[in-house]
Write a structure and sequence with these properties.
The structure holds three protein chains of three kinds. By secondary structure, chain A is an all-alpha fold. Chain A has 13 helices and two strands. Chain A has one domain: Orthogonal Bundle (ABC transporter involved in vitamin B12 uptake, BtuC), CATH 1.10.3470.10. Chain A has a two-stranded antiparallel ribbon with strand order 1-2. In chain A, strand 1 and strand 2 form a beta hairpin. The longest helix of chain A is centred in the N-terminal third of the chain and has 40 residues. About 5% of the residues of chain A have low confidence. In chain B, the strands form three sheets. Chain B has a six-stranded mixed beta sheet, sandwiched between helices. Chain B has a four-stranded antiparallel beta sheet with strand order 2-1-4-5, with helices on one face. In chain B, strands 11-12 form a two-stranded antiparallel sheet. By secondary structure, chain B is α/β, with parallel strands linked by helices. In chain B, strand 11 and strand 12 form a beta hairpin. The chains are: A mainly alpha, B alpha/beta, C alpha/beta. Chains in contact: A-B, A-C. At the A-C interface, helix 3, helix 4, helix 5 and helix 7 of A face helix 8, strand 12, helix 10 and helix 11 of C.
Chain lengths: ~350, ~270, ~300
Amino acid sequence: MNARRASWLVAGMLLAALALSALGVCVGSAGLENLIGPFLSPRRDPAATAMAQQIVWEIRLPRTLGAWGAGALLGLAGAVAQGLFRNPLADPFLLGSASGASLGVALALAAMGGGAGMLGGSMMSGGVAVSVFSSSALVRLGLTGAAFCGAVFAVLLTLALSRGVQHTLRLLLAGVVVGVVLGAMTHLVLLFSPESLQAMQAFMLGSTSFVGWTACVLMVAVWVLCTLAAWLFARVLDGLSLGDATARSLGLPLGPMRAALVAVLALATGTAVAQTGLVAFVGLAAPHLVRSLVNTTNGRLMLLAGCMGGVLLMAADTLARWLIAPQELPVGVLTAVLGGGYLLWLMQRNTRVARGAVL
Amino acid sequence: MTVPTSEPFIAIDACDLQARLGDIGILHGITLALPRARWTSIVGPNGAGKSTLLKALAGLLPHHGRILLLGRPLVDWPSRARAQQLGWLGQNESSGDDLTVWDVVMLGRLPHQAWFSPPSVADHAVVERALKATQSWDWRARTLGRLSGGERQRVLLARALAVEAEVLLMDEPLANLDPPHQADWLDLVQALVAQGKTVVSVLHEVAMALHADELVVMAQGRVTHQGRCTEPSTHRALEAVFDHRIEVHALQGQWVALPRISTLQKPNHAN
Amino acid sequence: MNILRGALWVLLTVLCGPAQAGPLQVTDDRGMVVNFERSPQRIVSLLPSLAETVCELGQCHRLVGVDRYSSFPASLRQLTQVGGGLDPHIEAIVALRPDVVLMGTSSRAGDRLRALGIKVVALEPKTHADVQRVMLKIGQLLNVADAQKIWRAIDAGVSAAAQSIPPEVRNTRVYFEVNPGPYAAGESSFIGETLTRLGAKNIVPAALGPFPKLNPEYIVRAKPDLIMIGQRSMDGMAQRPGWQSMRAMREQRVCVFPAEQSDTLVRPGPRMVEGARLMARCLAEKAPGAKQAAEARL
């Protein structure tokens, strides 16, 4: 029944991902271009083929696959959040990780901008020529590391504020409080360094511009890890859907498993945000889209939501690069349009069906 | 308080049980022995602490005092083993509307399933039995959100049955059930007891409670009486706890409790 | 006797005139006409480039308050700070009793200040041509006679910077990144104009706008000869996918401008000479052909 339908859905989404990655590889700074020619007959124009190969292999392929990886992480995190909080409006940023990442990035941008003594300060020799090629740990850590650390810090703060994971409502409230407070602090930092505003906006709206092979492989690896962990603990979410008391009566160790799920949530969200910035809506929409197609327990939902999120972000990213090439739209805008549009259509269809039932 | 002596085993033995909800004390020193392979029903007025008592006995509530499950202290039971022996059906609990009936009942098998394995053939058989026993088999593919209140209650009951526990604790299991299904539930419980299982239920339908083997009468956090449903002392205790607003009569081989309407007759204690 | 007194009066007016001449009328960038009975003596500036312009015209002493971002010349730091350009402290401004407030065109504070009876002149220079126009307008407002001369000196400075570049280095293809995003400075931006005057070519054509957010692939395919970046963009640039293959990166033809220098490059104002000189130096040192030119000269 459902198992078969779920398998069909996974196959379908993998196929879609494949097709989209082929499309994504063909879309670049010149819009959609035919790369099949140079690949099929390499000897005709070796320079063009070499260029095409380099662009596809080094730039477009890791970017497209990285978009899938980030989307998969966010989709998984969204499914975990909605199961943990038993709230269909939950998204992966509920525990304050978005604001934490923003604060980390804002601080990093401000520090890099200030010439004296902070992150980049020691590198500046006052002259024009400075080593961009230094591999000092702090510089490499840079924005990516700052975003990840910020996200994880925010979740830890939330956990500390709610004193553990036992009371879901308290966890939720603490997350909202942390999110608001850290967001305000971000604005404060930006007030004192307004030149960072543009860069900050690029981060807040999300983009896969600088995703290379390392980032791509990292994201996919973390996704595999988190999906396995989430699948292991998914039975807690199933049990919780019957209520706390029943879940405990079924012998499920609620405390440790909830903590493990929060850890999965933080890791997945932090990794995605660090590489691609804050992409809204994927985490919220992906589980709903899956549920509109097939009814399933939480275990399979984790995998399906990840795949759906990957496809969603991949499609949005390809469009973001295509529409106003060589300029780029922020990918967060497109995920909202695509995901939100589909949900809107779903809601419309449901109300029409309901009205039909009455009439 | 009388303790039945004809059975060699006590399913749940509580000694000086106390429980609080925040600052308010709900249970004040309850000592109770629930016999094995019997159906015990807990009755009492609203706010007596019945649900709290049941939750405490199931180990779901922090409490003071000692509880023995099947001869062993409840705290010594590993949670998985305890879950396999003690089934619980809660009252008014939220349920995930997106799961299918089959998936919900399969959740009852969680205590028996190993971590990495999918449901076994035995699990499938148990779920099928539980669904058929509650007349829910025909709509096993429907999601919970599309069921009526009574149908949903039957599914949750099937979930509790699927655990196949030795002791089954049920809080208001008849909620939303119409009379035919209430009768079905009675048959079910009698069948379970015949198999040697222990059933403890909290019922506010006194008429149904009087079909049990044992009755525990509670008021204001204390047990005022425990005894067999057929004994007159139990009936008197029952009437007393409800301020003599009910009367227990025999009717066609069953005991029924009728409300005493004040305009007809003054309460007559000699009766 | 009357004639003598009259002549004396005229002489005095002529001598003391420039600083205190009669009624003025100024049309600001929003099209509003502002009337002054005499040239304003107490000025509050809410835009750094306007404060710089006032000081360049030699009227620094007339400034009584500036925004928190005005940092040049250093003497401005001693003045009262009245908040930012977009979020000024209305009370603080009113307390200074200014004759005029100079601000950018994109702030809502103008209406509030006008309602409180303070004269507001909104000017925002965005291009090279704007710098001249704004300087002349402020010169007219402050009754500075040689504003035109000062502008010509600035203009000449930029041309001199352009001429200091050896001819082999002309037509270098440059990519200027303003912010990580990547946000590039296009031909139509202020920086772009400076680059054009220096004889360099911008890989971002004017059609894409002043500060487009580019696909990094575009930069790789455009194969710039020289990369100029602000300090903020420095992070991880060498690790950007596909960038190591760029000739500019391999040959280390990258100029990084620290934050203070970035200000002179980005802000359209009288310090554009300094900005032009910075970029000219970068071109002379790092552009391909620069080394050969230097060696040839030796």
